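Deliverable D5.2: sample structural annotation.
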Amino acid sequence: MVNNKTYNNVVNTLLRLGEYHFQISTTSVGDIYDLNLEKMEKFPIMHINPTSVTTGDSQLTYNFQIFVMDMVSEKSDWQTKQQSKLTKLVNTKNNEQEVFNQTLHICTDIIGMLRHSTRQSIKGVNDINEPMYFTQDQFTIEPFQERFDNLCCGYVFNIGVLVQNDFQTCNIPVTDSGAGF
């Protein structure tokens, strides 16, 4: 029997992946333009924007845009030792390059956990036949900066989360009457 995963299951799993990642301070879900960055206090942020659901023969694919962003700080002391040797190549007035570097690593971590990891299953469940969440294909991770009111930068990528679904018709809440004419 297939244990169908719902929208709530998938979103809560993505939120939990963000919550458990040591470099992410805040996770949220919804339309990206409803995100009030002025009131956010803890960065980096992983924001999940639901976009669509597609069906397959025995699966559903929940599609999302994942935003990973952090605040850019305008300080003169953000240089690392390596960067101080490259002063003509690196903007030394802020930490934008470091933010891009860190948020890109977080994006690849999220993709990796959905591609290869058992971290998305319930702790202690190591049965490969237990329905879990997966992703496939290749990803384009796009940088953005100053897209919002705050000076933020980071990356956004589209991801499809595949789950099993048997499209069971026995428990649909309808009458037993036929619908055809």
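Annotation notes: The two ends are 33 Å apart (CA to CA). Residues 96-116 form the longest helix (21 residues).
The annotation will be released with the project's public dataset once the embargo ends.
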